[in-house]
Every structure is written in structure tokens, then in C-alpha cells.
């Protein structure tokens, strides 16, 4: 028998084509008049957001960076106070969303988030921040964005390579939710639906990156997967990715893409039935090997070496994951974890260490 505590995210979700143009209405709905728009340095789609916010008084900060460095948050906070902002609007991937949440954590201002990748961060009340080479995670209802605008047209230009890694990042949320201690019938159904949508969506955009139906399927899967992360939780996979990203500087989504099949192999002795359900949703025989081959066939990254990790760092990565593990179905131990990391570093097929 499973026992669990379930909480649903209360946020408002607006999904469709060109819904970004409704951003002004959504800000006003939250009582905002002076939004601060946060984005990454590319400022992709920021002018479109500004047009949607007209005639509100708009401030801007375009310095969002991966893993939410606290120094960047401090700079954005200065801009937020200078502008006397009463609302935060973020446009971009998980990095822009993370900055928005970091600002909400310090000000409790309402947030309208417009995601342009598949990170799922916009529907979780979790924030990973980095300071002095360490990533720490905090969770609070205050962090949860009030409104999310999913505009499929803003994702049409996400390069296929980045789409593959970002969608596997979403898949990782769903996979870990399935074996989380908080898993339940609702989480299972949503997670499996997300996993089922991702493979065909990615195959479709490989043929035509601007295929709106496939892009919509991926964006909806990202939302569903984010919801499972929000209500279930994270295991060994997310822990390893947090260590690799926060302490060793590896890029977030590509790291998820390399690590996920290997963690599935690591955990498989403890989660036999769940592995079979994942394999079924992916349409493969063996979940770990099938996922690894799917990623390779889609042109995704397959080795930690290629992402820039040094071989000498493998024992330290394992030590940090063992020192403060997240709940995981199989005990997290140094020797098998180092073995897992070595295979992932070399880019070999996943096998249970
Ligand atoms: P990102 O936001 O850094 O974006 C990656 C790159 O893609 C950037 O160069 C960005 O400019 C570009 N990009 C974004 N959207 C684009 C588009 N539509 N077209 C073209 N280029 C586009 O990366 P990410 O993987 O989305 O997010 C990673 C961050 O999110 C990390 O800091 C991670 O910790 C965080 N995250 C948090 C959670 C959570 O629940 N707290 C969940 C997932 C990820």
C-alpha cells in the first residue's frame, strides 16, 4: 500500500498561441501596475512582452543566469526597488523563471511567468540558487508563480538540440515523480501522460522545428511534468544534476539528458514495476537503454565528458550526492554511484552498477 501527502499547485495557467499578448491583462488581474520584466541577456521576446504591457510603467532587468546566482538576484533586486515594481514578469527559460522566483522569495511580489523552454520551473514552488559554488534548494508557497502564460509561438524558434535537452529535463521530473515517496494515482497518470507526449513531440520537431502541434505537445508535457515535480519530489537524478550544475558548472538541461538513463539503470532493481511503465510510455523494451538510444538518435548529448566534467571530479560528485541525498528508492552509496558516473562520463550504455 502506498501512503502519501498530496498538494496541488494553485497557480493560473493560460495556454495557447499568442497568449503573450494578454500579459497586461494578467498583470492587472493580480493588481499590478508597475511590472519589472526579467529575462536573460538575449532579451528574446522582451519587446513583444513590453508591447503587451503597454501602457503600464515597465522596468527591465536582462541579466538572468543559469542556477540563479545570488549576486545576480541582488542586482535585479536593486532594479526592482529603483523602479518601485509591484509585480514581476519573466520571459525565457528556467533561468529567467528562477530569477523571478528568487525576487518573489525576497519581496513576496506576484509573478507572471512566460516560459520559453520545457524546464517546468514555472509551476513548482522550488528554487535552486547558487552561491560560492554551491547550489542550495529551498521550497515555499511564496515562490510559486501566480500566473503562467504558455505561448506555443514563443517556443517555435527554440533550437532542436536545446529542445531535446529541455524536454528530457521535463521527462526527468516525471520519471522521478513516479518513484517518489509522494507518488499516487494522480501523479502517476500525469507523469505517464507527459512521458508519452515527449517522444513523438521531439520526433516531430526534428522533421519540422516549427510544427505547432508538436511544439504544443511538448509545452503541455512540460507543464504536466512540472506539476508532477511540484507535487511529488526529487530523487537521485535531480541530486546529481544539482551537484553537477551547481558545483561543477555543467549546463542544466544537457546534464539532465546525460544522467537520466543512468539513474534509471541504477534505480531499476528497486522499482521494477515503475521501470516497466516508463518503458511502455516510451515505447521501448528496456527503459534505461531505450531512453539512452532515443536520446542518441535525437542527437542529444550522451557523455559528461563532452559537457566538460573532468574525470578526476567523479569521486567528489559522488561524495556530495551521498553526503546529502534526496529520497531515493535505492540507497545512494559511494561505490555504485561512482560506477554510474564513470559510465555516464564515458558515454556508455546505461547498466545497473
Ligand atoms: P535557460 O533558461 O538558461 O535557457 C537556455 C538557453 O536557451 C539560453 O541561452 C536561452 O537564452 C535560450 N532560450 C530560451 N528560450 C528560447 C527560445 N524559445 N528560443 C531560443 N532560445 C531560447 O535554461 P533552462 O534549461 O530552461 O533552465 C535552466 C534553469 O532552470 C536552471 O537554473 C535550473 O536550476 C532551473 N530549473 C528549475 C526548476 C525548478 O523547479 N526550480 C526546474 C527546472 C529547471
From TrEMBL:
| Domain Fe-containing alcohol dehydrogenase-like C-terminal span(s) in chain numbering | 164-344
**Which SUPFAM superfamilies does UniProt cross-reference here?**
Dehydroquinate synthase-like
Q: Name one GO molecular function term.
A: metal ion binding
Q: What is its EC number?
A: 1.3.1.32
- Name the PANTHER family for this protein: ALCOHOL DEHYDROGENASE, ALCOHOL DEHYDROGENASE 4
User: What domain of life?
Assistant: Bacteria
Spell out the family assignment given in the record's similarity comment. Answer: Belongs to the iron-containing alcohol dehydrogenase family.
Question: Origin organism of this chain?
Answer: Actinoalloteichus hymeniacidonis
Q: What is this protein called?
A: Alcohol dehydrogenase, class IV
Domain Alcohol dehydrogenase iron-type/glycerol dehydrogenase GldA per the UniProt entry, residue ranges: 10-151
Name residues in a coiled coil. none
Q: What class of enzyme is it?
A: oxidoreductase
Amino acid at each position: 500500500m502506498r501512503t502519501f501527502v498530496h498538494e496541488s499547485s494553485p497557480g493560473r495557467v493560460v495556454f495557447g498561441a499568442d497568449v503573450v499578448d494578454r500579459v497586461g491583462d494578467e498583470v492587472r488581474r493580480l493588481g499590478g501596475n508597475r511590472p519589472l520584466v526579467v529575462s536573460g541577456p538575449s532579451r528574446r521576446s522582451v519587446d513583444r512582452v513590453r508591447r503587451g504591457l503597454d501602457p503600464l510603467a515597465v522596468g527591465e532587468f536582462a541579466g538572468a543566469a543559469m542556477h540563479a546566482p545570488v549576486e545576480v538576484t541582488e542586482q535585479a533586486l536593486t532594479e526592482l526597488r529603483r523602479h518601485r515594481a509591484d509585480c514581476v514578469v519573466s520571459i525565457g527559460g528556467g533561468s529567467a523563471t528562477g530569477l523571478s522566483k528568487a525576487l518573489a522569495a525576497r519581496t513576496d511580489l506576484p509573478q507572471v511567468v512566460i516560459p520559453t523552454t520545457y524546464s517546468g520551473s514555472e509551476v513548482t514552488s522550488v528554487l535552486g540558487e547558487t552561491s560560492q559554488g554551491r547550489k542550495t534548494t529551498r521550497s515555499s508557497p511564496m515562490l510559486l508563480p501566480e500566473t503562467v502564460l504558455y505561448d506555443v509561438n514563443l517556443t517555435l524558434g527554440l533550437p532542436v538540440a536545446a529542445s531535446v535537452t529541455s524536454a528530457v529535463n521535463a521527462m526527468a521530473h516525471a520519471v522521478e515523480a513516479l518513484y517518489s515517496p509522494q507518488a499516487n494515482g494522480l501523479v502517476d497518470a500525469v507523469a505517464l501522460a507527459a512521458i508519452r507526449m515527449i517522444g513523438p513531440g521531439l520526433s516531430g520537431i526534428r522533421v519540422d522545428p516549427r510544427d505547432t502541434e508538436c511544439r504544443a505537445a511538448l509545452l503541455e508535457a512540460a507543464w504536466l511534468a512540472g506539476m508532477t515535480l511540484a507535487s511529488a519530489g526529487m530523487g537521485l537524478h535531480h541530486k546529481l544534476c544539482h551537484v553537477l550544475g551547481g558545483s561543477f558548472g555543467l549546463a542544466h538541461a544537457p546534464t539532465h539528458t546525460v544522467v537520466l538513463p543512468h539513474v534509471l539503470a541504477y534505480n531499476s532493481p528497486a522499482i521494477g514495476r515503475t521501470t516497466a511503465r516508463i518503458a511502455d510510455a516510451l515505447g521501448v523494451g528496456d527503459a534505461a537503454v531505450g531512453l539512452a538510444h532515443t536520446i542518441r538518435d535525437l542527437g542529444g548529448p550522451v557523455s559528461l565528458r563532452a559537457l566538460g566534467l573532468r574525470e578526476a571530479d567523479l569521486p567528489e560528485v559522488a561524495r556530495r550526492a551521498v553526503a546529502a541525498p534526496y529520497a531515493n528508492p535505492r540507497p545512494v552509496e559511494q561505490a555504485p554511484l561512482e560506477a554510474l558516473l564513470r559510465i555516464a562520463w564515458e558515454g556508455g550504455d546505461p547498466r545497473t552498477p
